[in-house]
């Protein structure tokens, strides 16, 4: 990656750990209740909606929260539309004229569907959050890049596939993803269920970077060296519930790992809040059997969680870290003698 100039270096320096914990003193109940009170509002008059959501709130972060929460609770993810756009973009990948024509036509259809039916894809979510923020005098940007989920095929990462938001609050930039926070797409019929995930609101940038890679790397908001795109592709597979329970993922750093039989593997995370040790387990699949096992060691130091495990057999193992019934992150281990 190219290095940035002095200005960007200064920007990155002041961005250390920009995340929700900066606002522990803020009670978002009022902002959330205002968003809920306007649940039936439509998108025909955005200035009016922005005013109604923010006029009775005092702080910038509360105003942004009301906007963000309203979008997450009222706009449905149209995954069929996403797949249609993906298919067309791949079809016209080598024909710039047809691709430009499709993009222009799709943009009109996208925003028409958003305004009329409150259904959209990631770019519609990010646009709406940024536009309502702009109307409320909040500096919020759409960020385009690559989003990696458990269903993403990295071999097809030949073009950006996701959009999210960066917002400036009290002179500091923060990251949020209203699309992934809004709910869950059914993997078979593509139906959508609203299920808000607060972990994607003002998320720790280092954790956000596990699943989001912006085209403009300045929007990673990292105070450390910018990871390469290749290292992003090598990350473990994170699930939506990871943002429900964690604020950081430390080790293992890669999806695919080669280890020795009976070698101790260390798993390190930062928790959002304390959890019951009995809720922690691994699901391991060697291609023949799937078993649920407990770590050999569980250490909780405040919100730092360290787990240890050993494989006593050779082979290939898909291994999933689970908290209760929530799938958090997946790895693969090639275990050798």
Order of helices and strands: HHHHEHHEHEEEHEEHEHEHEEEEEEEEE
- Number of helical runs? 11
User: What does the radius of gyration come to?
Assistant: 21 Å
Let me know the average pLDDT: 89
Q: Name the CATH architecture of the largest domain.
A: Roll
The level 1 CATH classification of the largest domain is Alpha Beta
Low-confidence stretches: 1-15
Helical content (DSSP H or I, runs of 4+): 25-40%
Count of the separate structural domains: 2
Helix/strand-derived class? alpha+beta
What is the approximate shape? globular
User: How far is the N terminus from the C terminus?
Assistant: 38 Å
Would you give the CATH topology of the largest domain? C8orf32 fold
Percentage of residues in DSSP E strands: 25-35%
Q: Please describe the biggest sheet, giving its number of strands, its sense, and whether it closes into a barrel.
A: 6 strands, mixed
Total strands: 18
Can you walk through the features of this model?
By secondary structure, the protein is of the alpha+beta class. It has 2 domains: 16-234, Roll (C8orf32 fold), CATH 3.10.620; 248-336, Immunoglobulins (Immunoglobulin-like). The chain contains 11 helices and 18 strands. The protein has helices at residues 6-13, 29-37, 46-54, 60-74, 79-91, 96-117, 122-135, 178-182, 205-208, 229-233, 242-245; strands at 76-77, 119-120, 139-147, 162-169, 172-176, 183-185, 192-194, 212-214, 237-238, 246-251, 256-260, 265-271, 280-285, 290-293, 297-301, 304-309, 315-323, 326-336. The strands form 5 sheets. Strands 9, 11, 13, 14, 17 and 18 form a 6-stranded mixed sheet that branches. A hairpin with a 2-residue loop joins strand 17 (315-323) and strand 18 (326-336). The radius of gyration is 21 Å and the shape is globular. Residues 1-15 have low confidence and may be disordered.
